[in-house]
Amino acid sequence: MYTMIVVDDEQEIRRGFCSYFPWAELGFEVVADFSGAQQADEFLKGYRVDVLVTDIRMRGMSGLELIESMRSRGDTSRVVVISGYRDFEYARHAMRLGVKHYIVKPMKFAQISEVFTAIRQELDAQGQKGGSEAGLTAEAPKNDIVHRVKTYVHQHYEDATLEQAAKSVGMNPYYLSSYFHQQTGEKFIDYVFRARMKEAARLLLRSELRINEVASLVGYTTANSFSRAFRQYHGMTPKEYRLEHGRDDA
């Protein structure tokens, strides 16, 4: 599955492009989308994707400036430019930056399919030449994203959310949820629950905090709701857990 990000300050167009086209059938996955080129540029400084899809005219940094910044770092990812402007100068500038695919809004299904089928063929050919080294490189961004998400959770037991986790890695919450599940075999919400319960157990045994204080630290507003969750995971209440391990409630 090839990775791509989408950059367009028109939310309806961006969401529609990301969500309603059957990307998986063509072998692509939208790993993040951005409303501004500056955000995308920051993301691309840390992560390599196979395809960048970007509008040209946006508030602040333009799509062309984004491509220039990317190329200046030696990033040779495929680029698809989308624009509502049929301006030859835009197209020529994009071509100078190595852009071969230029789609004019309103985008048609057949044209999108044609463009990404061609890109898939190019990437397949490149992959055959690159061999296993390219595969190992691609696997290492993947692992880093998952690692950063898990780090976020362990730093925010009290208020960890999918939305904030996605923001921490510059991804759309919907795609992060799907991506995290695909990479780990575990839903994000289940991982958060498990992480909270393990941290709660650690705090119960290694601190003098009261049960209601432990509950608060791992994201529960009441001791009762925390006790129910703890019992669901550990098979006993927090008080029973402390007694089982030779501790009493502080």
Explain this structure.
The chain is α/β, with parallel strands linked by helices and 250 residues long. It is 61% helix and 11% strand. It contains 13 helices and five strands. Strands 2-1-3-4-5 form a five-stranded parallel beta sheet. The longest helix has 24 residues, at 132-155. It is elongated and about 75 Å long.
**Alpha-beta content class:** alpha/beta
State the end-to-end distance: 52 Å
Low-confidence spans: pLDDT under 50, at least 5 residues? none
- Largest sheet: number of strands, sense, barrel closure: 5 strands, parallel
Tell me the Rg in angstroms: 23 Å
Q: Into which percentage range does the β-strand content fall?
A: 5-15%
Concise synopsis of the structure shown:
The protein has 250 residues and is α/β, with parallel strands linked by helices. 61% of the residues lie in helices and 11% in strands.
Secondary-structure blueprint of this entry?
Layout: E1 2-7, H1 11-19, H2 23-26, E2 28-34, H3 37-46, E3 51-55, H4 63-72, E4 78-83, H5 88-96, E5 101-104, H6 109-130, H7 132-155, H8 162-168, H9 173-184, H10 188-206, H11 211-217, H12 223-234, H13 238-244
Parallel strand pairs: 1-2, 1-3, 3-4, 4-5
Helix pairs in contact: 3-4
